[in-house]
Structures are given as C-alpha cells and as structure tokens.
Amino acid sequence: MGWPARFVLLADAISSVETFINVFVGLYWLVIFAYIITSWLRLPYSPTLNRIQRFLYDVCEPYLRIFRRLLPSMGGIDLSPVLALIGLAVIDRFLIWILDHFH
User: Would the pTM count as exceeding 0.85?
Assistant: First the structure.
C-alpha cells in the first residue's frame, strides 16, 4: 500500500471520528435538555417515566456535577447545565480543530 492510499485511509478515519464526535455531542446536548425539562416538570408517577428520569439522571448528573462544584450556590437557580453545554461545545470544537490538523 503506497502513500496515497494510506493518506486516503487516514483522511477517511479522521472524517469518521469527526462525525462520531459531532453525533455524540449532539445527542448528549439533547439528553441534557431532556434532563433539564424533566427536572422542571412534575410528571405523574409511572414506572416507564421513572425509568426514563433515572436514566437521564444517571447519564447527565456526573457531567453536571463537575460544573456544580465550580459555580457558587445561587439559591434556587442552577446554572450548571448552561455552563456544561458551553463546555461541551468548546470540547467539541477543540477536538474537531485537533483532528482537522491531521488532514
């Protein structure tokens, strides 16, 4: 396999990784938004809804906890999801920037 073929394979792999990162970050944004909305609403008890809320809590809470430690307590207002989404966007752009330098 010559250099041009290796370059094409590397470029294809990098493109696949960039697509994976974009999809992962987009889905995680949606999961965080769903977590925020379900935390605002008082939903009726249902085993299915309870499982969904528990899943959202288990997936989002470890990431949001990082930002809750950074922010001071502001009473009843929790700004950690906003900071978490901004941080996620920054990480996404940084990783894409790094991968673009391999092209």
Answer: no
